[in-house]
Amino acid sequence: MANINLDTLSVAELDKLKYSVEHAINNRKQTELVDVRRKLDELVENSGFTLQEILEAKSVRKPVQPKYRNPENSENTWTGRGRRPIWVEQSLSAGKTLEDLLI
User: Fold this and answer.
1) Domain edges within the chain
2) How does pLDDT run along the chain (103 residues), one tens digit per residue?
3) Which residues does 78 contact at the CB level (< 8 Å), separation at least 6?
4) Integer angstrom CA distances of residue 96 from 43, 71, 75, 91, 101
5) How far apart are CA 51 and CA 57, in angstroms?
6) pTM to 2 decimals?
């Protein structure tokens, strides 16, 4: 990369340099965008799916096994992820620990 001492350039030269840089960035973006589009088209063509099907696809999460059970109601379970259920908070407030609620 060429070293340019910006302190020695006039305002007109800086404006010209700015225009050149912006033009180069726009050209590079367009070139890279077209390349990405070509790769995507190739992937879609080889996948057997339509682009619409691919865009609408959602990842499937495997269910997580419960890690904790409410000792007062065994139907209430919690995986340990996300916000604590009320029964967990109540158990903790009553002096129990998470270890006490383990399945």
Assistant:
1) 8-56, 68-101
2) 788 999 999 999 999 999 999 999 999 999 999 999 999 999 999 999 999 999 999 888 889 999 999 999 999 999 999 999 999 999 999 999 999 999 9
3) 66, 67, 68, 69, 84, 85, 88, 101
4) 54, 11, 19, 6, 8
5) 10
6) 0.50
